[in-house]
Amino acid sequence: MNTKYRSFDELPLTLRVGDLMPILGIGRNTAYELIRCGKIRSIRIGKQLRIPKQALIDYLSDDD
């Protein structure tokens, strides 16, 4: 994994889509699709999308 974060503890409280991509090993379109369909919860701050750290943890631990 080519990312600047080595563990969940190092993640900031909110992530950008660009941060999410290398963590999950997905492309930009897939990242936005996961957000658009609600599989990964996001918040909008101005014009920017942010993914709460807990939303990523919830997505990764989802049993569905």
Would you give an account of this structure?
With 64 residues, the protein is α+β, with helices and mostly antiparallel strands. The protein contains 3 helices and 3 strands. It has helices at residues 17-24, 28-36, 53-61, and strands at residues 14-15, 43-45, 48-52. Strands 1-3-2 form a 3-stranded antiparallel sheet. The longest helix is centred in the middle third of the chain and has 9 residues, at 28-36. The termini are far apart.
Write the layout of secondary structure elements.
Layout: E1 14-15, H1 17-24, H2 28-36, E2 43-45, E3 48-52, H3 53-61
Antiparallel strand pairs: 1-3, 2-3
Keywords:
64 residues; alpha+beta; three-stranded antiparallel beta sheet; 16% strand
Q: What summary fits the major beta sheet?
A: 3 strands, antiparallel
Give start-end ranges of low-pLDDT stretches: none
Structural class given helices, strands, pairing?
alpha+beta
Cα-atom radius of gyration: 11 Å
Total domains: 1
**N-to-C span:** 24 Å
**Series of H and E elements:** EHHEEH
Number of E-type strands = 3
Count of DSSP-assigned helices: 3
Query: Strands of the largest sheet, in order across it?
Result: 1-3-2
Oligomer: single chain
Strand content: 15-25%
Query: What is the approximate shape?
Result: globular
Helix % is 40-55%
Mean pLDDT: 91
Q: Gist?
A:
This protein has helices at residues 17-24, 28-36, 53-61, and strands spanning 14-15, 43-45, 48-52. By secondary structure, it is an alpha+beta fold. The chain has one domain.
